[in-house]
Amino acid sequence: MRNTLNFNENWIFVKESADITRADGERVNIPHSWNAVDGQDGGNDYFRGSCLYRKSFKRSELPKADLYYVEFRGTNSSADLYVNSEKLAHHDGGYSTWRVDITSALKEENDIAVVVDNSVNETVYPQMADFTFYGGIYRNVNLICVNSSHFDLDYYGAPGIKITPAVNGKNASVEVEVFPKDLKEGQSLVYTLYDKDEKEIDRIESKDTNVTFFINDVHLWNGCRDPYLYCCEAEIKEGDNVIDNVCSRFGCRSFEIDPNRGFILNGEEYPLRGVSRHQDRWGVGNALLPEHHREDMDLICEVGATTIRLAHYQHDQYFYDLCDERGLVIWAEIPYISKHMQKGRENTVSQMKELISQNYNHPSIVVWGLSNEISIGGSDEDLLENHRILNDLCHEMDKTRLTTIAAVSMCNIDDPYLQIPDVVSYNHYFGWYGGNTDMNGPWFDKFHETHPNIPIGCSEYGCEALNWHTSNPKQGDYTEEYQAYYHEELIKQLFTRKYMWATHVWNMFDFGADARAEGGENGQNHKGLVTFDRKYKKDAFYAYKAWLSDEPFVHVCSKRYVDRVEDVTKITVYSNQPEVELFVNGESIGKKSAPDHFFYFDVKNVGESTIVAAAGDLSDESKIRKVEERNMDYVLVEKGAVLNWFDIDAPEGRFSLNDKIDDIMKSKRGKLWFVGMGLKIKKKMDEGKNGQKKSGGFDIDLKSGDSGLMQMMGGFTVLRLTTMMSMMNVEFTKEELLKMNKELNKIKKPK
User: Fold this and answer.
1) Phi–psi pair at 69, nearest 5 degrees
2) Collapsing DSSP states into helix, strand and coil, what is residue 76?
3) Predicted TM-score of the model (pTM)
4) pLDDT of residue 690 exceeding 90
């Protein structure tokens, strides 16, 4: 009988070493990451290199077995395994399960050493992306002890059992395929089907490795409404003895994605409106414990999401299990992201094989993601061929699911790589990275009109918010108020377009991105609806809850924004109730209804006021206080910024660095100035070593006002554009910026 031992405890860890004889490190338990701190503190200087993990054990302490496999659930990003100084395996890919048969190398006294490496290289994805590539053995390690006759443990980390349900009216057929190794004479296979309560439904004994069950009056897996799960167990038996066994839960469901009706589950339209998730968190990195995964799932369910895009890599099996149990519809993908590498094709194939093999049985998964923003530098033939190979591989390995990609805004809607997958989604940040919020819906309408037979969704949209506050939110201010406004607008645009097959907020949680220096807190991407430590739900969280959740609630926004200078201030309330009444210091100022779930009240700001929003028996409270001068604790001052917006001379009626590019381009002199600025940017981009562009290999055309990129940039202020360019290593000095500002000050604004 199979024995699986947890192998997490008592490892020796040696940082920055590949010497497998070292024994002078610190004692750690798995899960563990060496970038839990430096991978999220900014500076893009977190340690990337080789580190050593060692552990000793005695064979006599193990259960008796013919074969012993060590199983790693996640080692980022490459690893070499040694047992008693003998190298047994190498694995590339930091987010999947891999196993190694260590039997032949075992002695009575054993030493296991793992050299894990997250160094920069040209063959293993990801290498360029907006998140930290945490190094470490950051998921469970197990020792699997089996008989020589056993279900396969060698094929791409797969579970050894493959379950393919097919729904036909009120009934279902369930094809079960197993992969036994070294079956002997007299041994047989026994398959048992169980319902959700572990009650036996059917049993088949056979020598065949492929059998089919039939379920009458099947109980469907029906998303969040009813995520019903069956279970199938397969055993290798010899007489009455069970030699080995595997089991897997599964769900019976049908789905389709229609270019006009969106996602359809079990014959009914089922709008996929949800979030994306990164797996890391503050002070832990990616070395999550089960309670971390459960907390994430609870928060996602609280917001009312029906779908999760599990970005940008394979997630923990435990989290996929939670998705099955809670009924979330899942987009699962490999980390083929941002930068296409000529030498990386083999790695994309192996990571896709692992993703599908290990996750085939999860009913929550409906699409396999081929890539993310990979065409940011344009799509050449090698990139296209890589996508065709991956797309064909997915359909060969899994005939029940569809394929998708996440394209970046700059990707032309007629780009040939959009024709490769079954469905398409776009990452759009109109209203944050340039453009305006009202550009989002019309863009999707244009795509839908141009390509009526391609299902289109939005795979990323969002904006950053920290503990900054204002009564006049503007794009790029990093305030909680602008994030709330942005998501109000996007919800109304995206959720009302029935044809969109899925929408995924970027992101459910703030996450580590050590290269980032934005918003006043470096090392993080702050687009989350919830903070990195999961302790604070931003106002935008409740905007989604108002639209998506059936749990009755009322929420007063801007609770952290107390001191206000205006005489009359706007109070925003989110609720999924039909009517909200607002009280100021106990006195009602009126009731309002809001079909869009967003309630706005004008409140006189005098002295100190207690604000209470009530909807039936529900209520929520906040406070405001009248002040004469703006509380600068609410105002972002960029750390290390060359210039902050309030340091810029902006004469009335004249342009400055604080003006939007769209507005400047409305003036003839302003347009000429901006063309000149474009030439300066191009020159800086061309100043890289050996002629290689600092921008990472893609061109920016600032002269064509009709280009899609110019439409995006139009919503930027000049200052924000120069700040964003610094993320592509295009730097402007303080003197250069002040000179630009003086030039703009000479240009009158059109009346």
Assistant:
1) -115, 140
2) strand
3) 0.92
4) no
360: number of Cβ within 10 Å? 20
Q: How many CA atoms are closer than 13 Å to the CA of 284, on its beta-carbon side?
A: 21
Which residue type occupies 581?
A: E
Residue among 325, 391, 400 at smallest CA distance from 360: 400
| Beta-strand relationship, 563-564 and 618-626 | parallel
Pick one of 3.40.50.300, 3.40.50.11810, 3.20.20.80, 3.30.70.240 as the CATH number of 260-496+529-535: 3.20.20.80
Query: Residue 560 in 3-state DSSP?
Result: coil
Burial of 217 (0-12, 13-18, 19+ CB in 10 A): exposed
> Is 268 exposed, middle or buried, given 0-12, 13-18 or 19+ CB atoms closer than 10 A?
exposed
- 670 pLDDT exceeds 60? yes
Count of C-beta atoms within a 10 Å radius of residue 438:
11
Calculate Rg over the CA atoms of the chain.
Answer: 28
Domain boundaries, the chain: 3-145, 161-250, 260-496+529-535, 564-632, 645-745
Q: Phi/psi at 517 (nearest 5 deg)?
A: -140, 70
Handedness of CA 309, 361, 166, 335 (dihedral sign): positive
CA dihedral sign, ordered 470, 476, 478, 482: positive
The SS3 call for residue 131 is coil
What integer pLDDT is reported at residue 256 of this predicted model? 98
14, containing H or E segment: strand 11-14
Asked, colleague to colleague, whether 260-496+529-535 and 564-632 share their fold, the answer is no
Phi then psi for residue 684, to 5 deg, are -65, -35
pLDDT in tens, 168-197: 999 999 999 999 999 999 999 999 999 999
Task: Say what the alpha-carbon torsion angle 397, 398, 402, 404 is, to the nearest 10 degrees.
Answer: -30
Domain 3-145 in CATH: superfamily? Galactose-binding domain-like (2.60.120.260)
List phi, psi (to 5°) of 455.
-60, 130
Instruction: Supply 265's token pair.
Output: 């589950």
Amino acid in position 661? I
How is domain 161-250 classified at the architecture level of CATH? Answer: Sandwich (2.60)
CATH class of 564-632: mainly beta
Q: Smallest Cα–Cα separation from 710: which of 678, 669, 751, 672?
A: 678
pLDDT of residue 730: 79
Q: Is the preceding omega at residue 507 within 30 degrees of 0, hence cis?
A: yes
Residue 700's nearest CA partner among 275, 323, 409, 350 is: 409
Strand order in the sheet with 210-215: 161-168, 171-178, 210-215
Distances (CA, A) of 504 to 202, 273, 428, 615: 39, 6, 11, 29
Residue 569 or 433, more confident: 569
> Catalytic residue positions?
373
Residues 228 and 324 sit within 8 Å (Cβ to Cβ): no
Q: Are 205 and 187 in contact (CB under 8 A)?
A: no
Q: Which helix (H) or strand (E) holds 524?
A: strand 524-525
Q: Residue 385: in which H helix or E strand, if any?
A: helix 381-397
